[in-house]
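User: I'm preparing a small set of examples for a lab meeting where we compare how different chains pack in three dimensions. I only have the primary sequence for this one, and I'd like the structure in C-alpha cell form so I can line it up with the others. Please keep the answer compact; I'll paste it straight into my notes.
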Amino acid sequence: MGVSDGWVEVGEQVFVRRYEFFDQNIGLILGRAEALVIDTRSTYAQAREIQEHVRELTDSPIGVVVDTHGHFDHAFGNAVFRPATIWGHERCVSFMVRTGERRKVTIAAEEPGIADDLREIVIDPPDRVFATHATIEVGGREVNLRFLGRGHTDHDIVIDVPGTDVVFGGDLVENGNVPFFDDGYPLEWPATLQAIGERVGPDVVLVPGHGDHGGKAFLDTQLESMTRLVELARRVEAGELPLDEAIAEHPFPLHPPEDARRGFERALGQIRGEPTRAEKVT
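Assistant: Understood. Below is the C-alpha cell output for the 282-residue chain.
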C-alpha cells in the first residue's frame, strides 16, 4: 500500500488511507449511515482533506472519531470533526491539555511548512474516555477500544473491529522508521506488544500509525526489536556495554544506528527514573 493508492479496504467496510505527510495511516470504519475516523492528522487543512476523501466512499456523516493517542499528528485536527463524538484514553485528555500549546510552538519550528496552519489550532481533546476497555458503536457496528499498557506514550490505544481481522495499532507499531521514544516507556513497551499479539490471529491485518500495514510477522518483529533494545540498554546501565556499542548493535537493522540513539537514551532514562518529555511539561 503506497501513499498514492487512495483508500484500501483491509476488512469488510474497514479502510485505510496512507498520507504522504509523515507517511501516516488514517482509518475509516463504515456502519449503517454513519462513519468513524481513526486519527485526525496535524492541522485543520489536513483534517479537511480526510473529510473530502471520506466522501469518495460514503455520504454518511462522520459521527465518531477515535484518537489513538494525543500527539499532534494524530489529534490536532480534532476540532474540524465536531460535533462528532471523539473517543480516547482518559490520559489522552491530560496529555493534550498539558503539552498541546507548547507542541504547537516546537512543531512550527521543526516543520515550517505547516507553521502557519498550526497557529489556528485549538487543542480539542477527546470528550469520551475510558481506562482499559470500551465498546462503542458506529451505525450499529461494534468497535473495540483497548488500553493494553504503556509504550509509545502512557495512553496509546488499539482498535479492533469484531468480525474482521483488522487491528489499528497506532504508534505502538511503526513500519519504515525506528519508533519515536521521547514520550515513551520502552521498558514496558514489549509487554504491551505481547498483549496485542495475544489478541490477534495469524491472518491479522495490523495497521501501524505510520508506514505499510503488516501481519503477525510484522508484530513479532516489532516485539523482538523492542525487547532487544531494552536488553541492550540494561547491559549499558549495568556497565557491561558502552552506549556506542549498544547503538552499533541496535535491533532495527533496516535503519542507521544513530536513528536508534533516542530509543536507548530514553530506555536508560526510564531505568534511572527520569521523566519523559511530556512529564517534564507542567
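A couple of notes for your slides: The chain is about 30% helix and 20% strand. The mean pLDDT is 96.

User: Perfect, thanks.
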